[in-house]
Every structure is written in C-alpha cells, then in structure tokens.
Amino acid sequence: xxxxxxxxxxxxxxxxxxxxxxxxxxxxxxxxxxxxxxxxxxxxxxxxxxxxxxxxxxxxxxxxxxxxxxxxxxxxxxxxxxxxxxxxxxxxxxxxxxxxxxxxxxxxxxxxxxxxxxxxxxxxxxxxxxxxxxxxxxxxxxxxxxxxxxxxxxxxxxxxxxxxxxxxxxxxxxxxxxxxxxxxxxxxxxxxxxxxxxxxxxxxxxxxxxxxxxxxxxxxxxxxxxxxxxxxxxxxxxxxxxxxxxxxxxxxxxxxxxxxxxxxxxxxxxxxxxxxxxxxxxxxxxxxxxxxxxxxxxxxxxxxxxxxxxxxxxxxxxxxxxxxxxxxxxxxxxxxxxxxxxxxxxxxxxxxxxxxxxxxxxxxxxxxxxxxxxxxxxxxxxxxxxxxxxxxxxxxxxxxxxxxxxxxxxxxxxxxxxxxxxxxxxxxxxxxxxxxxxxxxxxxxxxxxxxxxxxxxxxxxxxxxxxxxxxxxxxxxxxxxxxxxxxxxxxxxxxxxxxxxxxxxxxxxxxxxxxxxxxxxxxxxxxxxxxxxxxxxxxxxxxxxxxxxxxxxxxxxxxxxxxxxxxxxxxxxxxxxxxxxxxxxxxxxxxxxxxxxxxxxxxxxxxxxxxxxxxxxxxxxxxxxxxxxxxxxxxxxxxxxxxxxxxxxxxxxxxxxxxxxxxxxxxxxxxxxxxxxxxxxxxxxxxxxxxxxxxxxxxxxxxxxxxxxxxxxxxxxxxxxxxxxxxxxxxxxxxxxxxxxxxxxxxxxxxxxxxx
Length: 756
What we know:
The protein is an alpha/beta fold. This is Carrier domain-containing protein. Keywords: Phosphopantetheine, Phosphoprotein.
C-alpha cells in the first residue's frame, strides 16, 4: 500500500516493476514540488512501524508497534517531563527503539530533530560541538556514553542542555555523582522499558542521593501497568524480589510469525476481567523501594544486556560448542567495578589447537557481531565447586588477567609513545599484560572503550582521530602513525600514495583480486568478504577519486579505467588479473578488461548478480515507476498535476544551482562524483570483450529476470557467460552468512582461471 519507497542503490533492482515512486538515499535532493500521497485510514490497531529486537539468541524478533501504542508512549512523555524538546540530538541508531522516543516526541511537540553524522559518538568533542551549535536541549543516550561526555567533554559546550535521559543499560551510582558534579542544574532521567512496551514503561528523575544508594528504574509512566510477580504469577510484597511484567495499551500483541515466542513472552493478565488482556514478561528482576520506585536487580535467566543488545548466554554457549576446537565453554559478562562497563568473555577448554581468530571468523557467519565474545580465555579445566557446579567467581578472577605466554617478549613497548598507549589500554580494558601488536578490537575493545582511549591518549600528548584508530588498531601501528612527521608513517605512505587503490589485504602469493567501487562511494562491504578468501590472496578495493578534498572528475569511462589501471599495474605489473564488478560499476569493469585485452593481458572479470548496462535498466525502471505515479495523479487531480509538473520543470535547474551553493563540502564532493559517474556511464558505448564473463547468480522469484540478466552478458562476452549459482539474494552476497559462499565460489573461479 506504500506510495513512496525510500531505499538504497543496491536494493533498487528488487523494486522494479512495482509501480511505486522510489527515492534513493544516495541521490536524494530537496524536492521542488512535494509528492502528493494518499492518506490511509489507520485506526489505533493498525501497525505504525516494525522494529526488530537485537535477539538474545542471534535470531531477531519482529515487534509490530501499533498507532495506539505509539500515541500512548509519546503522550506519556508530555505527562512525565517538565520540559519538552526544543532541539533533540538523536545519538542512537534508527534500529534502536530508543530513537523513536526522540523522533516522535520532538516532532509532535514542534521541536528540532538533530540527526548526527556516522560515528559521531566516537568523538566526544564533536558531540559537544553539535550540542552548542544547535542549542540542543535534550539528549537520550547510553549511560556509558554519557559518562564519557561528562569526563572528557567541554562543559562549556553543554550550556543549552536542560534534560539528559539515559537508557539501555544500568545507570551506575558513579554516573549520578558525576552528573551532579558537572551539570547540577540539568535534569537527569533514567528510563526503563523493552521494545515490546514501545520504548519505555518506567522512568525516574535522578536525585543527588541516588549517587550513594543506587539509581532505580523508577515508577510506571502514564498508561503503563507494572507488576512484580513470583513464580506462580502472584504479587510479591514490598522489599521482595519479583519478575517485572508490563501491561497496558503500550505493549505489543506479539511477534511477527513467532507464535512459539508469543506463548512464552505474553501471558494472560491475572488481574484483569478482560480475557484478551495480556502482560509482557520481561525476564528482568526488580524490587520495590520504600518510596515506591523499583530497582533493577538483573535477569531471571541467563540473558544479559551489553550496549543495548540482549544476549542469551546459554544460546551463545551452544553456538560456541559447535566449533570443533572447543571442548567446553562458559560465557560470562565481566563488569568493571569502577564504571560498570561490560565485557563479554568466553572461557574455553580447547579441543586440540584453539585459534581465537579462526573461531571469531567462523562465528561471524553464525551470529551477529555483538554476540561474539570480546576475549577468549583458555583454561585446562573449569574450577568446580563441591556441588559439582562451575565456580563462577574463580572464573571471573581469571578474566581479570591473561596468561603471560599470550604476549610475546618482543611485544613489549620500545618507545615512550608505546609505553603511554600500553598503560592506557591496560587501564581501559582492565587487564594486563598487553603487547604492542595486540589488536584493540580483538582483545576486548569496542567503540565505547575506544572513546576512552582516544581521550586519555590526547590528554597524554598522543593524538589520533576515531577514524585513524579504526585504521591503526595496534599500539605499534598507532605509535608509528602518531610519532612520525604529520602522522605519515611508512605504512601510511604505502597505503595512501594511491588515489584509487585501498589495500584490504596486501600480503599473499596469489594474484590479487581488485574489487571495483559500487556506484562511486561504496567499497567498505568488501572487508568482510576479504576475510573469507584464503589468506594468501591479496585484496584491493578500487575507489572513486576525490573523497578527500577536491573531487577528480573524469570525462569518460575510458579515462577512469585508464587511471585505475595505472595504479593497479604499480601493485601487479603482469597478469593474470582478477576483477570483481558489482552494481553500478559494470561499465568500468568491461572497459578495464577491453584495455588489458588490447595489451594481451590475461584478465578475469567476475560480475556479482548484476545486469550489463545496469544504469540503462535502472533508468528504464525508474521512468516506468515515475510514469505510473504521474498517471495515477493525473487521474485523481489532472489540473493540479499538470501545473505542478510544469513548475517542477521550470524551477529544477535553479534549485540545483542553489543546492550546489549551500551544500557542505563533503556532501558536494559525493554528489559531484555521483553526478559525474552518471553522466559518463550514460555516454558509454558498450562493446564486446574477447574473453568470458563469470556471473555470480542468485535465485530470483521471477526466473525471466535471470534469463535477461544472463543474456545481457552473453551479448558482450564473445566466449560466453560462465554462470555460477550462489544461494542467497543480491543484497546478501557480501553479508554473513552468504558472504562465505560468495568468497568460496569466487576463489574457485579465480583458481580455475589461473590454472588455464
């Protein structure tokens, strides 16, 4: 029933033929004439949105939220909070339900919603700068992130704040103390609520005394019913521990197509006369304080929550035991005594040779990244209590240190910068020893902890940005980068002497694979793909130029291909050459092959589930969709539609010029690159290549589409098309778990080409 579909370039082919107006995020510009959409008659029971929970077992559950639930949740904020948001800084991802609080609360009360750039949460100074720039009054964030803002941010930038909301994690007393020390005149609120209860169901205004007696999750908000029940669904008395159940109009009626989960999570309301009323079982334990507020006491099961993600430890252990090199395992969360930060650990009794890196690579194909343990602690056997159960306290003590044999002697710091960074890492990660070649993100680091490292390093005179930290993930690399003139270490010079080539893996004896950019600005998804190729296969991404500074615009596809080849030959002077082409870049792939064929170079082109002359196909589909939409509007209101169509044609050139003037530098660069590529692709003449084209092909509901796809390449490749069937779909080719199949299929294809 949708009138408009907002999507990405890579997803657009699956929408062809739907007859809908499709808008692409990458090319979205200000609309000269607002698109007219029909208003749907939605009642309170109609679904407003669907959000997928993180999934404690790695299998997310779809939670449909009705208009009634959303209205009830939003109206509750008007009742609870004394100040409505004039400017709300949206720090949480759109995939987290907490973002819905900021979005609907702010827009329904006429406030400004400030959308943050990617990775902004990893640079505290930029968060403060945004708050100051937009006079932000309200933020909602994880307690752990707010702690870093208080510790490392410039308080002068936070003067406009009047409301800070923390949610998604336990709010430690330390955070309350820090808040009243740094921002005593700003209201601090602790919210609690599962996704199934439409963001929140309890809240508490944090008081100064909470810093000594603990921060509760509060009392029920308007429209929410909260019950603390025992095992027989009876009410527990004040001071006793009970499981938290939620009722009222805010809770969802169940999961999408998961009746098995519904039976467990949603129970008949024991205190209602309406047989249809249900309570949601949170699995959290709570206890009433004397003031009527509820304090959170952990989980009733083995489920834990880390950085907003729910994880079932027992389910994680089952996945770990499926690894052939693990004989036994215990998963556990290590919580810091100082700030309450959490780390997911796996204690392992190995079966033969245990390789933590290999296990992590395997787990990436089975479970989401947030479920993969930060550290693996290898033990000969688990400590056992007299009752034959595992001694969990003894295991926790093991997690605070690491066997010295894991750190090589030559991994000790060799200069003052390395010594500073080692001390900082040991302090932040809360264990030692740490070697200078240890990878921060493989020994327990994450994005939140990286903020602490950056801030502490800067205070010690060692400076690097979040992006640089993600590039140089060991102490040795960071030290080399930070101490060399202008940060240009030998490694940096090697990696960034190219305009187009981005090394993903530089080592290996086999001929490299060159992965062409997808549409001008995208190549990051090739990182996971490269991990699943053999370690002796070098991999390079080939990006569009101009991403840093002034864009370099090409006059033709042939000119772009020649630029790419010039740098490729610096890495690999002779063939055989392997190229991967995906989505928008098929024209570049073909032109590179044609040039190298004229030089008698052996060239292997692999196309990932994309039609030749992709842009023409896309443009035709887009024209069809727009024509269908225009005809529909003509039918409903012909005069207004004609007038608006003429106005849009008259003012579109002027609007484009205004946008070019007012856009930021980075936005303008990306748009210039994109528009440049569109123009040169349109003018490209498709000629045949002498060799064969290899086509990775996924199943499609419309089998005729696959036939057209194969035929499009058959017309270009004189030696025909080698079709390689791959399970999955077009958009999952480079995502787990399909990426492993994609990598294996491509490696076989490359080996076959090399062997003749």
